[in-house]
Design brief:
The chain is mainly α and 477 residues long. The protein contains 22 helices and no strands. Helix 3 packs antiparallel against helix 8, helix 3 runs antiparallel to helix 10 and helix 15 packs antiparallel against helix 20. The longest helix has 37 residues. The protein is globular.
């Protein structure tokens, strides 16, 4: 196995992929590349840019409504533990993973084709299609996460290689997706670009068809029910622990009050009269640069900040997060032009800085969440914690939409956009008052009581650890 690890570093990407394919089967490696790289990375980047233009230019909705609709399409990610439990303990026709890849692919193909081919689609049906497409990506994400977790248990020395494959696929896919998204929206329109999302969905469906998975026709649903009850009991016991529920409250509230007014800024920055009138190509490029900023944030955390205490690191990153948002005020008041800084250069700098700080703020929350998971149901409980975070992000999106509506920021009226930015920035400082909920411990400390960390003995515990695993998506922003 040491020779394999050496190969992964000096043998080149092709030999590394060949080694993983030989050890884990080529269909698994292909599935990771398709789900993480093509569906989530490339497809997610393309969808983000295309959906912004779709609501703005095709449906002609106001920024506040667009903000609200984007939040609704995020709901399938909020209920990721539900998908995780289904794929872990509810096999279909004797298979645990393949049917869920097929379902995810069908949802994506059908919804994106309807959205693309129907030129007068009512806003309600458009919202249903985008939500169904988001659900397809979420289900595929949970299912491939479960496959990765299962292979990590069966092949422990290859676990880091699998995580590297996931990370590289997602990052490269996102960079490529953001780089071409603007050009695609410009040349074929937002509907055409969304229609291309059916291709990644079709590839996900193909993963479900070819995935190497043993057929298990004699599943005992009584055992499934018992394991669900046992997992639920363990999760409830864990949530009652002060070192668990207090950080959960912090994560939910801090994310919820950090209002998201992205759509208001997007409408302004693409407006030909009030804003800089950025083209689709520039928007795509700026977002691709933001992905690079996120990667820089991960590298900075890994090399300089991973040994800081949770409370100390969250204090400084939240403080920087609040101050960094003030750059949007500089842009809206056009102060950058007054000092000779072009809009494009300023936005690129702003996007890089925002994503670096955002990733530095997010990483300790991920580490903290991973340390709050009890033994035996680590994956499912981690998915639960991430869903709590996703609820916070959803409330932040809806809260931002309400703020834009109250301040009368519309498709053509941006007179109060500065006030929305200022309120958002001031609210970013409020989580500092809740830091007492975060354990004052370093990131290498053990936070759970020992009775929740001890592995259960016997075959049943081992099976539960395998079947109730559903890792969630790494944040992207």
């Amino acid at each position: 196995m040491k020779s394999m690890e050496k190969m992964s570093f000096i043998g080149g990407p092709v030999l590394w992929l060949k080694m993983l394919s030989d050890e884990l089967h080529w269909t698994f490696v292909t599935g990771v590349v398709i789900v993480y790289g093509i569906s989530q990375g490339l497809g997610g980047a393309l969808s983000r840019v295309a959906s912004d233009y779709y609501w703005k230019d095709v449906q002609l909705v106001q920024p506040s409504a667009s903000q609200f609709y984007q939040g609704i399409t995020y709901i399938p990610w909020v209920v990721k533990p539900l998908w995780g439990l289904f794929t872990d303990v509810c096999p279909v026709a004797g298979y645990k993973r393949r049917p869920y890849f097929i379902l995810a692919g069908l949802l994506g193909v059908f919804s994106m084709l309807v959205l693309s081919l129907h030129h007068n689609l009512h806003v309600v049906f458009a919202l249903i299609c985008l939500t169904a497409g988001s659900a397809g990506v979420a289900i595929a994400d949970v299912t491939i996460d479960a496959c990765v977790a299962q292979n990590s248990i069966r092949h422990p020395p290859l676990a880091p290689d699998m995580q590297s494959l996931c990370g590289f696929s997602s990052s490269i896919g996102a960079l490529l997706g953001f780089s071409i998204s603007g050009f695609l929206v410009y040349f074929i329109g937002s509907q055409g670009a969304l229609g291309l999302m059916s291709i990644p969905a079709a590839l996900v469906l193909l993963v479900g068809v070819v995935l190497n998975e043993p057929h298990q026709p004699n599943n005992t649903y009584k055992q499934v029910y018992e394991k669900l009850l046992e997992a639920t009991k363990t999760m409830w016991t864990t949530l009652k622990c002060p070192n668990v529920w207090r950080p959960c409250v912090y994560m939910l509230v801090s994310l919820a009050i950090t209002l998201n007014i992205h759509e208001g800024l997007f409408y302004w920055i693409t407006d030909p009269k009030a804003g800089p009138a950025f083209s689709q190509e520039i928007i795509g490029f700026v977002m691709s640069v933001g992905s690079v900023g996120a990667l820089i944030g991960v590298l900075l955390y890994q090399n300089f900040f991973k040994d800081y205490s949770f409370r100390g690191l969250l204090f400084w990153t939240q403080l920087l997060f609040g101050f960094s948002g003030m750059l949007d005020l500089v842009m809206v008041f056009r102060l950058n032009l007054k000092y000779g800084v072009p809009d494009f250069a300023f936005v690129v700098i702003d996007e890089i800085g925002h994503n670096i700080v955002g990733r530095l703020r997010w990483m300790p929350l991920l580490v903290l969440s991973s340390k709050l998971c009890p033994s035996g149901i680590e994956g499912t409980f981690f998915a639960l914690l991430m869903s709590i975070d996703n609820v916070g992000l959803l409330l932040a999106s809806w809260g931002g939409g309400l703020l834009l509506h109250l301040l009368k920021v519309t498709r053509t009226e941006f007179g109060n956009l500065w006030a929305a930015i200022l309120i958002r920035n001031l609210m970013r400082f409020l989580p500092l008052a809740l830091l007492f909920l975060i354990p004052n411990a370093d990131q290498n400390s053990t936070l759970l009581p020992m009775d929740l960390l001890q592995e259960e003995e016997g075959e049943n515990a081992e099976e539960q650890n395998i079947e109730l695993v559903a890792l969630v998506e790494r944040n992207e922003e």
